TrEMBL record:
InterPro entries: Homeodomain-like_sf, HTH-type_TetR-like_transc_reg, HTH_TetR. Gene3D superfamilies: Tetracycline Repressor, domain 2. PANTHER family: HTH-TYPE TRANSCRIPTIONAL REGULATOR BETI, HTH-TYPE TRANSCRIPTIONAL REGULATOR RUTR. Keywords: DNA-binding, Transcription, Transcription regulation. SUPFAM superfamilies: Homeodomain-like. The keyword Transcription applies. Residues 15-75 form the HTH tetR-type domain. Residues 38-57 bind DNA. It holds the Pfam family TetR_N. It comes from Streptomyces werraensis. The lineage of its organism: Bacteria, Bacillati, Actinomycetota, Actinomycetes, Kitasatosporales. It comes from the Bacteria. This is Helix-turn-helix domain-containing protein.
Length: 201
């Protein structure tokens, strides 16, 4: 489910400014190269103050991942907003498929090439995935029903978040997501039953 638009006039204005800054930054990064563009360049092109850029984005890297918070919320809501009694792992699989389709659209390809070519952006992406996994693990741990260990919740969360990165590198991303989630579901069911997951060795 996409993020709901802000309702108040002030909130809408802030959201519009944020989007303008992000769109301007991405255009400059793709035109000139990520390392060749600074925050001052982005601010000047967007016709805002440097402090305004930093009021919306904590770092230059965050300008590239401007949907970061939305994706983090979407993963947690796949757990918390599903219908009563609806199975958990399929809900997470559907949300992951939606995120993969969004991020692998043709227009996203130049952005991912830029990310792959930048150590700073790759490092930021890795820290972002860890944060998303912790947020998702907290949502899983708060689930009613049979208790599972914190380790089990964090393990499933890592499975889910890493599924995107693995799918992005796969020849068939959709099939890769399904394969990863079959393993995740088996592990989650074993944790629910209290049964140990047997080693492949």
């Amino acid at each position: 489910m996409p993020e709901q638009p802000p309702s108040g006039r002030r909130e809408r204005k802030k959201a519009a400014t944020r989007q303008k800054i992000a769109d301007t930054a991405l255009r400059l990064f793709l035109e000139r190269g990520y390392d060749a563009v600074g925050i001052r360049d982005v601010a000047a092109e967007a016709d805002v103050a440097v402090t305004t850029v930093f009021s919306h984005f904590a770092s230059k890297e965050a300008l590239v991942f401007e949907r970061d918070a939305d994706f983090e919320r979407r993963l947690a809501r796949a757990v918390t907003d599903r219908a009563p009694g609806a199975p958990l792992v399929p809900a997470l699989r559907r949300e992951t498929h939606a995120l993969v389709r969004h991020c692998l659209a043709d227009e996203a390809a130049p952005v991912w090439r830029m990310i792959d070519a930048s150590p700073a952006l790759r490092e930021y992406e890795g820290s972002m995935r860890l944060r998303h996994a912790e947020t998702l693990a907290a949502a899983l741990a708060a689930e009613p029903g049979a208790p599972r260990s914190a380790v089990a919740c964090r393990a499933l969360a890592r499975f889910v978040v890493d599924a995107f990165a693995l799918a992005r590198e796969a020849d068939d991303p959709e099939t890769a997501v399904d394969e990863i989630f079959r393993m995740a579901e088996a592990a989650w069911e074993a944790a629910e039953a209290g049964a140990p997951v047997r080693s492949a060795t």
